[in-house]
Task: inverse folding
């Protein structure tokens, strides 16, 4: 989730996910490089108040390689993000007696 996104740069890149070709995605995704060439992988532009959600594991519990991602450097300004980890199974409470 992007809490502050008053910046240039700072995209969240998913190098193993191909960027969709449809132009309507270009408001949220980086579609071209500075030289005008197409961006091949998904790069989510930071916009304050928006979020990106994905599952790290498939239903069988296998790691999904496509969710490999990185926050790219901010060129100018400020970007503040918030990570929220979700679970599909109960977490063992270490403070409860078993």
Result:
């Amino acid at each position: 989730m992007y809490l502050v996104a008053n910046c240039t740069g700072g995209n969240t890149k998913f190098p193993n996910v191909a960027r969709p070709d449809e132009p309507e995605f270009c408001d949220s995704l980086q579609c071209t490089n500075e030289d005008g060439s197409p961006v091949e992988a998904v790069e989510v532009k930071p916009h304050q108040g928006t979020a990106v959600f994905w599952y790290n594991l498939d239903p069988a519990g296998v790691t999904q390689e496509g969710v490999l991602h990185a926050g790219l450097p901010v060129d100018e300004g400020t970007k503040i993000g918030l990570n929220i980890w979700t679970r599909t199974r109960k977490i063992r409470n270490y403070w409860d007696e078993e």
Summary: Residues 2-81 form one domain.
